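Contributing new records

If you add data, match the layout below exactly. Sequence lines come first and carry their own label; structure lines follow with theirs. Keep one chain per record. Anything else will be rejected by the validation script.
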Amino acid sequence: MKYLLIPVFLGAVLASGCIHTSETVVRDESRTPIEFENDTAGRLFYETLSRNGHRGREESSTEISLPIVFEHKVKTVRGPNADFNDAVARCDTNRDGKITEAEARIYAGTPK
């Protein structure tokens, strides 16, 4: 009797269709607070940040599936603030929370 229920169950699952879900999660972080020594430092920093564009987005994927019946995919990506925070970490070499004009010029690759 038990073995008769297995084909009935599989038939019901196949007749009802499959469940597919897919989602993308953006993991953003808050921006690192930063000050600039002067307008030139701020301009150099933001121009370089926009010129460099987005670095390769780090992604992670998770996939769970039971063939024919269920499939669930989750893709996690870093948010845009991560690029900003990385740039601040590279530019503010002494980690004092203030980007000087000299630090901005070094970051931009344009020494005085």
